[in-house]
Design brief:
28% of the residues lie in helices and 28% in strands. By secondary structure, it is of the alpha/beta class. The protein has two domains: 3-118 and 295-324, Alpha-Beta Complex (Quinone Oxidoreductase, Chain A, domain 1), CATH 3.90.180.10; 123-261, Alpha-Beta Complex (Quinone Oxidoreductase, Chain A, domain 1). Strands 3, 4, 5, 6, 7, 14 and 15 form a seven-stranded mixed β-sheet that branches. Strands 10-9-8-11-12-13 form a six-stranded parallel β-sheet, sandwiched between helices. Helix 4 (150-161) links the parallel strand 8 and strand 9. Helix 3 packs across helix 4. Keywords: NADP, Oxidoreductase.
Length: 327
């Protein structure tokens, strides 16, 4: 067999095509896909944007998947055929996908395929945002701004498990706010309501949060500056509410806030490997022990990725949307 079914970017959006099964390079794994998970970047590519090394017309899409190693390159980190792995990269909405071994983790023994596919992107993103760039210390007050995605929900749990004194999550949807406390939040606030940053200051006794992980950006940045503690940090991970907005430079200076932008689009594989090391040292035992949980909003057939992306665009989900192979 030399071909497979995959979801690719066509001229008018995602479509299912028969394409060649990719071949792994010396540092790569060829993986039989069991499950794949959607991410916002997949949606951006569906709408015509690009994301780092992905988003080319005719190329299989899908940033996150889990499955069994079929073939391993000679320098692929010791992985071998039959190993269960969870991966990130490009091309996961397909029967087979290739990933560099540095973008893969072994699947913990007790973890299902559905669970496994939810973690590769979220683990790296939030260990990087909360622990590396966020430099969170035990006793910190942390806010995950835009907390109802899988990445945001895991960020709250990592902050809590690593010793945060207070965790605040935000969502503009009442039903989602009602669920944030099940995933590590002490308080859930609505940033669409006037005075939301004053509410954060009230919850923190007038001190502000030591760390904000910002998934939204756009019109919210000055409110975030206003409720961040003196010499606190804002780590800008996502820009779901807008890629540009007014920025109060004087308020930024007055609060002496460290404003840090992060993305994986410009990370080298060596950068990714260094973040993996922190995942393994700081939170891996918690993952293996089942101390984290991510809700799956729905599961759909693997080759219905286009329909799943439309469901994501409606913004009605809580947690992850997972695609499952029929094999």
């Amino acid at each position: 067999m030399t071909t497979m079914q995959a979801t690719v970017l066509g001229d008018t959006g995602p479509e299912t095509r028969e394409v060649a099964i990719p071949s792994p390079g010396p540092t790569e794994l060829l993986v039989r896909v069991r499950t794949a998970a959607l991410n916002r970047a997949d949606l951006l590519m569906m709408m015509g944007g690009s994301h780092g090394f992905g988003g080319n017309s005719g190329h299989p899409i899908g940033m996150e998947w889990a499955g069994e190693v079929v073939e391993a390159g000679a320098q692929a980190g010791g992985y071998k055929p039959g190993d269960r792995v969870m991966c990130s990269g490009m091309g996961g909405f397909a029967d087979y996908a290739v990933a560099d071994h540095r973008r893969c983790f072994p699947v913990p023994q007790a973890m299902s395929w559905t669970e496994a596919t939810c973690y590769p992107v979220a683990l790296r993103t939030m260990v990087d945002a909360v622990l590396i760039n966020g430099a969170m210390r035990p006793g910190a007050r942390v806010m995950i701004f835009g907390a109802s995605s899988g990445v945001g929900l895991l960020g709250m749990q990592i902050a809590r498990k690593c010793g945060a004194e207070m965790v605040i999550g935000t969502s503009t949807t009442p039903e989602r706010r009602d669920r944030l406390c099940d995933f590590g939040a002490d308080h859930a606030i609505d940033p669409s309501q006037e005075g939301w940053s004053d509410r954060v200051m009230e919850l923190t006794g007038g001190k502000g949060v030591d760390l904000t992980v910002d998934m939204l950006s756009g019109p919210y940045v000055n409110g975030l500056l206003a409720c961040t503690a003196l010499e606190g940090r804002i780590v800008n991970v996502g820009r779901l509410a807008g890629q540009a907005g007014e920025f109060n430079f004087d308020l930024h200076a007055l609060r002496r806030v460290a404003y840090i932008g992060v993305t994986f689009r410009t990370r080298t594989l060596d950068d990714v490997e260094a973040i993996n090391a922190r995942v393994r040292s700081d939170v891996w035992e918690m993952l293996e022990a089942g101390e984290f949980t991510l809700p799956v909003d729905r599961e759909m057939p693997l080759l219905q990725a286009g329909e799943a992306l439309e469901a994501m665009r409606s913004n009605s989900h809580f947690g992850k949307i997972v695609l499952r192979a029929g094999n």
